[in-house]
Automatic annotation (TrEMBL):
Source organism of the structure: Psychrilyobacter piezotolerans
Residues that, per the record, bind ATP: 41-48
Reaction equations catalysed: a lipid A disaccharide + ATP = a lipid IVA + ADP + H(+)
NCBIfam families from the UniProt entry: lpxK
Listed name of the protein: Tetraacyldisaccharide 4'-kinase
SUPFAM superfamilies assigned to the protein according to its UniProt record, in alphabetical order: P-loop containing nucleoside triphosphate hydrolases (SSF52540)
Pfam families associated with the record: LpxK
């Protein structure tokens, strides 16, 4: 493992150096402002709600916005691909990946996926009247020039243990935080103030804006999309299931609703659920006498159409800024 981490370190540092020295060149797209939302650790920092927050912020400012994503784990014959035109959805979650489909459901802007983010952004520009693109998870994709790099720092695991993959969760050396234009410390409500101060102190050497945010629960929905009151969870037994990079934070969020007991079934990140999974979930729910089965928006888009499982609800969370210093001079 040590050797693999060392090789990974050599490869990522060498690649970054080639871009820094302009030996590898980034491609620019004229007349489009590109805001990249990314992280320096693997998964779980809250990119999806942050992207949706930024889209709404830019729409409120009168900008014409599209979202571009890699479409992780999406299997499609056409790439890049238009997932949504802002009104209609043209792709399944198997084609687009789960996050882009979730963007298509929760925002009314064009969504494009593509492994080559430059080609995907060009497809957006050529097909839609836009002036702004929010790039979902593109910090390490240096082939595309962007106007602003927004790096998310998960307050519960800010720097990946200081170790690169596979020993830790760092995607690249921490020194690469120097490329960031803005920082948002996410999940701030899940740690104490001392931890936030420590993270701010570390980031302050980069002399960039630092914002602080949490992910607040806004509603509980049944599988038909009808909202239910959050107090239903209070003093009830709850089973959670999800395919997330960090399911512990999902559990902490549900615990804040004060159920009498919780149990958790974890699947791999981006897991595609099968019939056998649902049987296991129902068996565990019956064993604990669960009043509710709760999952996430990210997981619900991967469930089959006309899916039915009694007592199952979706927890919807949104980003709330606690300290908003975005784009301040």
């Amino acid at each position: 493992m040590e050797l693999l981490a060392y090789l990974y370190h050599l490869i990522t540092n060498f690649r970054n150096r080639l871009y820094d020295k302009k030996i590898f060149k980034s491609k620019k797209i004229d007349d489009i402002e590109i805001f990249c939302v990314g992280n320096i650790t693997v998964g779980g920092t809250g990119k999806t709600p942050t992207v949706q927050y930024l889209v709404q912020k830019f729409l409120d400012e009168g900008k014409k916005v599209a979202i571009v994503s890699r479409g992780y784990k999406g299997k499609r014959k056409i790439d890049p691909m238009i997932v949504s035109d802002g009104k209609n959805i043209f792709a399944t979650t198997k084609e687009s990946g789960d996050e882009p489909l979730l963007h298509a459901i929760n925002t009314k802007v064009p969504i494009i996926v593509g492994r080559d983010r430059y080609s995907a952004c060009m497809l957006a520009k050529e097909n839609f009247d836009i002036d702004t693109i929010v790039l979902d998870d593109g910090y390490q994709h240096r082939k595309l020039e962007r106007d602003c790099n927004i790096v998310l720092i998960d307050a519960t695991n800010p720097f990946g243990g200081g170790r690169l993959l596979p020993l830790g969760t760092l995607r690249e050396d921490l020194r690469q935080l120097k490329r960031a234009d803005e920082f948002i410390i996410t999940k701030a409500d899940l740690v104490d103030d001392r931890e936030i101060k420590k993270i701010k102190k570390y980031l302050s050497k980069y002399k960039k804006n630092i914002s602080v945010a949490k992910y607040g629960v806004v509603s509980l929905k049944d599988l038909k999309g009808d909202r239910k009151p959050l107090f239903w969870v209070n003093k009830k037994k709850v089973l959670l299931f999800s395919g997330l990079a960090n399911p512990l934070n999902f559990e902490k969020t549900v615990i804040s609703l004060m159920p009498s007991a919780t149990d958790r079934m974890d699947f791999l990140d981006h897991h595609n659920f099968k019939e056998r999974d649902f049987k296991k979930i129902m068996k565990r729910a019956d064993e604990m006498g669960a009043d509710f089965i709760i999952t996430t928006e990210k997981d619900i888009v991967k469930l089959p159409q006309n899916f039915h499982m009694p007592r199952t609800y979706v927890l919807k969370v949104e980003l709330t800024m606690l300290e908003d210093n975005l784009f301040q001079q």
